[in-house]
Amino acid sequence: MKYNRIVIALVFSLFALWSSAQTVQFGVRGGSNISGESRHKYSADVSNSTDYRMGFNAGGMVNLKLSEKFDVEADVLYSMQGFKQDIHTTIEDIYDNIEVQTVTSHYLNIPIVAKYYVVDGLYVECGPQVGFLLGRTNNKKDWSIADPYEYSKSKKVDFGIVAGLGYAINDNFFIDARYSIGFTGTSKIYDGGKNRNIQVSIGYLFGG
To answer: Residue 146: pLDDT above 80?
Structure first.
């Protein structure tokens, strides 16, 4: 219920800003992700920290121009995230090998950011983000310690914050880089597991 109230409040805020916007533009955007998770070690068989992995993002957006200096942008993005980590495989309880486990998380992310134009074209942006987990897999399906990464044992909603820097090439094309941090955690059965994601995207706004 707490999460539902937050989402409803964000939607109503967006519609309130829409009614006062000078210009409304719809668009598309997409690009690359470099994602990971910041978490506590939960097993002697895994490494203390995780490594980043590559993914991608793509989706639609709406940009509300409120003044010469301020915009508000809302996106609906598919985002491939996850992480890599070292795991120890065993034979007769002796660590004999280290393999790399890759966990893939599929999210529908909805960031809503305020954009401030520092100079012509160059802007900074920041705002909340809610992510809905669509699926979660790992490449070590026969490894019992991998159970925490199953979809059924993962949290389905991730609230966080996103901040970034962008440049509007003209009224239609733009490029930006964002860093997002999840606050909710990804697993139901161990502590930690918070999403971290670097996103570099290009986009196109229709009209203008």
So the answer is: no
pLDDT value of position 90: 58
| Residue 197, CB-side half-sphere exposure with 13 Å CA sphere | 34
Say if CB 4 and CB 170 are below 8 A apart.
Answer: no
B/e letters for 16-30, b = 16+ CB within 10 Å, e = fewer, are ebeeebeeebebebb
Distance from C-alpha of 69 to C-alpha of 117, rounded to nearest angstrom: 5
Average pLDDT of every residue of the chain:
83
The whole-number pLDDT of residue 91 equals 53
pLDDT value at 48 more than 80: no
Answer for the pair 110, 129: CB distance below 8 angstroms, yes or no. Answer: yes
Contacts (Cβ under 8 Å, ≥6 apart) of 149: 103, 136, 137, 138, 187
Return left, alpha or beta for 60; rule: phi > 0 is left, psi -120 to 50 is alpha, else beta: beta
Distance set, CA 62 to CA 17, 76, 165 (Å): 12, 9, 18
